[in-house]
């Protein structure tokens, strides 16, 4: 617990309200120094890591699709579907998400760069980078600014005004999990503005056309080209590709929701942004994120978003470094008496779904 004299107005409703202006400045200095230390240490070890993961992912995808050429045989269908699902998870989570964050731009490799990567997902990369990299990571958990708070269809905090349309949200969330890539695809459309009639119609149409092109590309690959290549196994291969996509979607949805909504993760009112210092921004990331505990393979399969706290603090830091800095971030939280939300996957999933059910109904 810091001993500095309190010069700030305490926020009694927040776990961070005890911090002083001096605390925020000190936190900013410590985290800036940590980020600079890792940036200065990046090198061939890190570049070799991402290239190795890309090779593994491509090998898994080729192997999975090869097995599905015999998809009418149950063992081949199961093995091919599982392998393809793992390949899609790796591509979306550890590769696509992180490459498009600019985590590997320092390598200056045009093939592994945020400006050139287009991921295996129906969401166009450019739209995702705006809604996620800019909007979400700038305004993390700020009501009315961060569209990730409930994704425009879910009530995940009592600060959101209740409406009868939230009552069936457990069903909405189940469907969102199964078809998560489509929810991500329309995220940048800002559905709230469309409902209110405050959107730019031409810009909305432009984005919809881009989404349509990406969907046609993905469907053409997964639901036409590769099933056709399997000849008489067309329908079984089609079903395998659909299943692999659903598995990837449910996994991504679970990991992302567990990093943002479980337990005592905080949301903030828009006036929190008025004059927000860098230290206050860091603290908002700490209070508004949650980690998931697990082993090395688990962290890899989450795209290291199991270290969601570290990712929100340093979104452009290579993901393979999050496990390295996590103990130091936790120590900083203990030093300043700040929350460090962390738990097992089962605990975080349970906590998140409890919120989905609880806030479907009116609350005091």
From TrEMBL:
Coiled coil located at which positions?
none
The Fatty acid desaturase domain covers: 76-342
The protein's superkingdom reads Bacteria
User: Sorted alphabetically, which Pfam families does this protein's record hold?
Assistant: FA_desaturase (PF00487)
Q: Which InterPro entries is this protein grouped with?
A: FA_desaturase_dom (IPR005804), Fatty_acid_desaturase (IPR012171)
Q: What is this protein called?
A: Fatty acid desaturase family protein
Species of origin reads: Actinomadura sediminis
